[in-house]
Amino acid sequence: MRGSTIVSCVAVNALLLPVMLLGANPPATEPVQPAIVEQPMPASSKPAALPQPEQKKPLVLPIPIEATLAERIAKELIAASPVADPADIKARDAAAQNLAACADLMEAMHGRILWGGFNADQGYDPSAYRLDIRSRDDFFQLTEFHPLVWTKLYLSLFMFPGPYTVKQEGRFTVLEIDTKFRGDLDPGEYPYPFWHSVNKWTAYINVERLVLILEPGRLVAALRKSPPPLSLSLVKKSWDAKWNWTKENGEVQPRVALYTYLFSKDNPHVAALDQSYRELEVQFRQQNCITCHAPDNQSRINDLLLLNYPNQALIARRTLVAVLEDNRMPPGDNIAQEPTGIRDPEALQELIRLAKAFERQADAALAYDKSHPSQVKEPENKK
Predict the structure, then answer these.
(1) Does the reported pTM lie above 0.85?
(2) pLDDT in tens, the chain (383 residues)
(3) How many Å apart are CA 205 and CA 62, to the nearest integer?
C-alpha cells in the first residue's frame, strides 16, 4: 500500500508540475516592443494639400521698342545740334553734318519723312493731315522729304537745349523735345523762303518743341509745335515772290537747296545729277508741274512733293517714272474739261527719259555718300 501510495503521489506530482509551472509568475524582465514598419500610404488615401496663398507678382509694363528708340534719338539731337548763336552759319553747317551722322535717327526714317506744323485739332496721327475742298483753312498738310534732305536742310535749323518727353498717343510713340530756331541766318540758308507766308514764318520763329512721331517700326513724321497762332504777334519779312535768286557774286540761292550743299565735295556724281535735274526741271515748267509742286501748295496736295528745288525733288525719284508712264500728271479738271495727263506723246516720252536719268544719277550720288561718310565736324561759335 505504502509503495503504491508513493507511486501515486509521484504520478500526481508529475501531473501537477506543469500546472504549477504554468501558474507561476514569470521572472521580472523588460517587455519587448514589437518593431513598427511604416508602410507608404496609397496615393488615393493621401490627404489633399492645403491651398497656398497666391503670390502677387509686381506689375511690370512692357516698354515699347519705339520708346527706347525715341530716347536714343533725343540724346542724338541734343549732342549733334547744341544751342549756339541763331545767326551762326558755321554752327548750323556743323549741326547738319552731325545730324546726318546720327545712326538711330537716319535708320528710323526708312527712306522718307513727313514734315509740317503741328495742329492740335488734327493731333498726332499723320493721316489726319490731309486736305480736301471741305477742309478748314487753318488745317495743315505735310510735305514729304528724303531723310538726308530733311535732316541737313530742315532739322539743322533747330538747336536742342535738352529737355524732352516720350509718351504714347494711341498706337504712336511721340517724342517732344524743346528747341530753339535759327531765325537770324541769311535768306539763302533756309531751304526756301519760309516768309512767303507771314503765318508760317511767325510759326517758325516761335517754335517751342519738335514733335517726332514713331509708329511701330519707323519714324513717320516730324512736326513743329508753336503757341496758338492767335496768341502770337505776326513776324513779317519782305519777300519778292521769287523762290530762287542769285547773289551779286553769282551764287545761286538758296545755297542749301543745291546738291553741292547736300553731298560731299568729292562725290563724283553731283555734276551729272545736277545736269539731269536741270533738264528735267525745264520740262516740268513746260508742263506746269511746278505750279502745283511748290511750297505754297496752291493745289492743296497731300504729302506734297517739291519739284522746284534740286535737293527737295530727290524724294520724287522713286515714284516719278511710274506716274509719268501711267500718264497721271498733271491731274485733270472736269470743270475746265481738261483731261488727266500730258497730251503730247513726244513730250511725255521725253519726260520719262529724263526722269529715269534723274533717278539713276540720284541713286548713284546717294550711294556714294552712304559708303563714304564725311568726317563729323564740331560746332563752331563763329559767324
Answers:
(1) no
(2) 334 333 333 333 433 333 333 334 444 444 444 444 444 545 444 555 566 666 666 655 566 789 999 999 999 999 999 999 999 999 999 999 999 999 999 999 999 999 999 999 999 999 999 988 888 888 999 999 999 999 999 999 999 999 999 999 999 999 999 999 999 999 999 999 999 999 999 999 999 999 999 999 899 999 999 998 889 999 999 999 999 999 999 999 999 999 999 999 999 999 999 999 999 999 999 998 988 899 999 888 899 999 999 999 999 999 999 999 999 888 777 776 778 889 899 999 999 999 999 999 999 999 999 998 865 444 444 33
(3) 38
CA distance between the termini of the chain = 163
Question: Whose CA is closest to 156, among 176, 195, 185?
Answer: 185
Cβ proximity of 237 and 195 under 8 Å: yes
